[in-house]
Amino acid sequence: MQWLSVCSLLVLLSVLSRSQAQNQICTIFTEAKEDGFKSLILVGLAQNLPDSTLGDLVPLIAEALAMGVKCCSDTPPEDCERDVADLFQSAVCSSETLVEKNDLKMCCEKTAAERTHCFVDHKAKIPRDLSLKAELPAADQCEDFKKDHKAFVGRFIFKFSKSNPMLPPHVVLAIAKGYGKVLTTCCGEAEAQTCFDTKKATFQHAVAKRVAELKSLCIVHKKYGDRVVKAKKLVQYSQKMPQASFQEMGGMVDKIVATVAPCCSGDMVTCMKERKTLVDEVCADESVLSRAAGLSACCKEDAVHRGSCVEAMKPDPKPDGLSEHYDVHADIAAVCQTFTKTPDLAMGKLVYEISVRHPESSQQVILRFAKEAEQALLQCCDMEDHAECVKTALAGSDVDKKITDETDYYKKMCAAEAAVSDDSFEKSMMVYYTRIMPQASFDQLHMVSETVHDVLHACCKDEPGHFVLPCAEEKLTDAIDATCDDYDPSSINPHIAHCCNQSYSMRRHCILAIQPDTEFTPPELDASSFHMGPELCTKDSKDLLLSGKKLLYGVVRHKTTITEDHLKTISTKYHTMKEKCCAAEDQAACFTEEAPKLVSESAELVKV
């Protein structure tokens, strides 16, 4: 059984050896160091064996540690060079208890690649939970944390890994590290609970953001393939490392794209081997490191965390002498020559040149311009007067203007969000999205309106002005990706289905262009559609917001073109009723009498 825990590393790591002939376990043990080694093993075991307890895994981790030492000895066992995935699966399948406990009998009846695919599919079906539920108040968590920091973090890794089996291990460990920082900060303060509640909410948001980014990338890869993923990553990393040349960036992006398919499928062996190759080669390139300060700093991190550091790093300063704007027309002859022979290379160069100059842009704005430029080159490059043809074709398309216009749009959204209360803005988003997709359920539209509010609130606060565009559009696009993937768009309405099938960079613009759906036939509007009673007298702001959104959802569905004035009238009547009945001696009787009146008056306004 000792190999069970050693080989759980298949699901792990950004520290796996490139060469199958190497002593993999020793490579891992040496690079991750003892604590990192144990943490990575714990992630792999917990993600693959979610019905096992932490107590089941502790002895296996201890055995793995002992084997790590043996593999790094002068006479390592032969198994140190065997394929890690095969070893892991064989070890699991040799234990009837583990097979039964984790429902792996069907997988263990298979062999070779079929068995690996079965293990991956099994892991993909494990339910996920990002909630980070706190079982103990801050004071008790602090006591446990101070008593044994490593044991506390280990328990967190175990629980979070079980609930999130498809997250890459480096992401799980980065999240665990972040949670440890929250406790380190708050446990030293007098008001530990207040500190914990505040910082945990911020931390939870950061976790949700990172997971949304990963989920979106996988959705984009599944729907649009390597080409769009490569374009996205070329923009992202050219913005982060403008000192790197196009050739250097192209090689780096190719390696990044190679990790996407295995990482999204749950094949963490291949995923982490590819990540290891990528990070090793990038961090070994002294020429790039000497020019890319952010990358250089990340490469000094330990092997477990440097990949996450690279993903999170901020843009480096632009190189001296770089022009402020990129003019595609300046060398159109060479551009067309390259485009005619190798279109993707020409488009990659164009995307790179724009991206290094515009870290303040979103990926989507640059890709929208690139799509227009590609159409112009397709139309013009075979023509004798290709230069004039391209100028004409792109006459109304200026990337700098696109960036400015989109930035201004989000600044206006930020101003609108700041001008009203959080609840009012979220309700306005509920009204907007109910108008264009009244067929969607309340839960769907509640989630969409909440997400839009959260994105704008975070980006307007954290990235004011200059960088609000990449922050907001990236996150909103992630949300659109998830919505189009989680629900059948055709079950909502043909407009949403059409937008979900648009090109990647155009989906958000397509949705913004949808007009209120006037063809939807709603159910009758009557008092039974709403439940308004003494529960509205609660002081819980979330419950009150939910109730207000339900009323708006019900009313707007019945007339998607209802005016803002009529909505204000209904809202005012709702608050008047609430104040009256919450002050009444018999609240229930008051609501029973007043709620139907409100619904009836709302129904009359809907008819206008």
UniProtKB/TrEMBL annotation:
Stored InterPro entries: ALB/AFP/VDB (IPR000264), Serum_albumin-like (IPR020858), Serum_albumin_CS (IPR020857), Serum_albumin_N (IPR014760)
Alphabetized UniProt keyword annotations: Disulfide bond, Repeat, Secreted, Signal
MF (Gene Ontology): small molecule binding
Albumin domain boundaries: 13-205, 206-398, 402-600
UniProt-listed Pfam families: Serum_albumin
Compartmental location: Secreted
SUPFAM superfamilies membership: Serum albumin-like
Highest taxon, organism lineage: Eukaryota
Gene Ontology cellular-component annotations: blood microparticle; cytoplasm
Signal peptide: 1-21
PROSITE patterns per record: ALBUMIN_1, ALBUMIN_2
PANTHER family for the chain: AFAMIN, SERUM ALBUMIN-RELATED
The protein's name in its UniProt record: V-rel avian reticuloendotheliosis viral oncogene homolog
Organism the protein comes from: Salmo trutta
Gene name, Swiss-Prot/TrEMBL: REL
